[in-house]
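Quick note —
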Amino acid sequence: MSAVIISSAFDSGNIEVIDASDPADIRLEVRTDVGGEHLQWFHFRVAGGRGVALTLRITNAGKCSYPGGWPEYRARFSSDRLTWRLADTSYEDGVLTIRHCSDADVVWFAYFAPYSHERHQDLLAQCQASPLARLDCLGATIDGRDLDRITIGTPAPGRKTAWVIARQHPGESMAEWWMEGFLSRMLDPHDALARRLREAAVFHVVPNMNPDGSFRGHLRCNAVGANLNREWETPTAERSPEVLWVRNAMDQTGVDFCLDVHGDEALPYNFIAGSEGIPGFTPRLAGLLDQFKAAYMMACPDFQIRYGYPVSAPGTANMTMCTSQVAQRFDCLAMTLEMPFKDNADLPDPDFGWSPERSRHLGAAVLHAIETVMASLR
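Predicted structure written out below.
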């Protein structure tokens, strides 16, 4: 039998091999993001494991950023890097254990189905091929990657301005799968709802706010250890250029609507977090928020409003976060969408869990919710 070889030297790869001499007791550790504060994302491949009963133990799981995310969580695996299924996974005494016997020579494991930089480039190319979209670069990241924006629609009197961004936290790859569904429908020339939205507003879309962290295999941080969703109050070109370029562009266009797409490690639900804690939160914004959430729930059974984050008390919002800063800065409806790393507990899928396919469907369904509030936006 060939030796089992474990590696992560590829796009979004992350794992440290402690001991792989015994396939029944392979010990691994998740590598920490640059900055030393966050860790949880993993993505690695195992070669030479065909027909071998593998036991993979991530021994520092209890020291990860969100250890509460491990109970009832199941890792993803794939032998073709297209279809990602749920692996036999358990968590006990700070160790995440994955058991698997593959019928393939090489199998990949990940915290969630990865969204590669190459696929990101393909998404941009597909969008700019549409006559309905334009593609431009807002600026460069720390590592020199492009921060790209897709613009759908043309400014005109009476048209609103909407911003939709994703993947501030690079390990939350479901956010860019969501973007695929959203953009595909928005650019469908035969979709009547998309057409009506394109006539009502200009959409500025940033599918990946953190391409450096995505490529490096980070959970939350960019190339210099900045958590981008804590940089919106005072972004700088040295520490958080990604936020600086986007916020500057927002100042130029104005914002009537903003949706920031994320994933949550612990809660097994899809939900919205609003801007209730900002100083400028008003009954108008409260009504728009409730209207949007109700419409999203009607449009897609995978979305719900019972479970989510505690609502911030008035005046206690964290103004370094995108939703709070944008809502206050532009007096607009700004929200954070969270999707699960676990399965959706309301509609569990024992084979795939929460998946890229379901993320895409949730992204397509948001058009109904946006259309519902569009007429009420300033």
